[in-house]
Amino acid sequence: MNAIEAERLRRRIDAKTDKQAGGHWIWTAHADSSGHPVISIGNKPRQARRVAYELAHGTVPAGMVVTAICGVPACVNPGHLEAVTRSQADTRRKASSLSTTGVRGVTWRKDRNCYLVAIRINGRRHRKSGFHTIEEAARYIQTMRNQ
Ligand SMILES: [Zn+2]
């Protein structure tokens, strides 16, 4: 893909997403039966998350799949996408059915438009709300665990 094609594709993706609080880029165009965004390129359907990932980070390594770390299936924000192995993707899917994001201990509070962290470290519970991005919430957990 040359630079002009890449830019055109970036604009198409941009036009089909609804950028929400929390940083999610919610796909508003066609999705497959599992709710995963689909974009047609040269009349061929492709996984939009994979395309968005490749535009931002380069080719997905062979055998890897692209998942949304935020746990929102319709999200195509390249910052929320990660290339992982199938088994990592399965583990993440299980984790995200427990919270609402792919990051353990982090849930999205739709009513407050922010992320909530609820974790237990050495038997002590920690709760903190008000994170605007999943990265911020994940960083907070990292800091708490390192203390
Ligand atoms: Zn997201």
Q: How are strands sequenced across the largest beta sheet? A: 7-8-9
Distance between the termini: 46 Å
The count of strands amounts to 9
> Which stretches are low in confidence, meaning pLDDT under 50 for 5 or more residues running?
none
CATH class of the largest domain: Alpha Beta
Could you please say which CATH topology of the largest domain applies here? Homing Intron 3 (I-Ppo) Encoded Endonuclease, Chain A
- Biggest sheet layout: 3 strands, antiparallel
What is the C-alpha radius of gyration, as a whole number of Å? 16 Å
Which hetero ligands occur in this complex?
A: zinc ion
Q: In sequence order, what are the helices and strands, one letter per element?
A: HEEEEHEEHEEEH
Range of strand content:
25-35%
Q: What global shape is seen?
A: elongated
Number of helices: 4
What does this structure look like?
- By secondary structure, the chain is of the alpha+beta class.
- It folds into 2 domains: about 1-100, Homing Intron 3 (I-Ppo) Encoded Endonuclease, Chain A (Alpha-Beta Complex); about 105-145, no CATH class.
- It has 4 helices and 9 strands.
- It has a 3-stranded antiparallel beta sheet with strand order 7-8-9, covered by helices on one side. The protein has a two-stranded antiparallel sheet with strand order 1-2.
- A hairpin with a 4-residue loop joins strand 7 (about 105-110) and strand 8.
- The longest helix has 13 residues, at about 5-15.
- The protein binds zinc ion.
- This is HNH endonuclease.
- One of its GO terms (molecular function) is endonuclease activity.
- Keywords: Endonuclease, Hydrolase, Nuclease.
- It holds the Pfam family HNH_3.
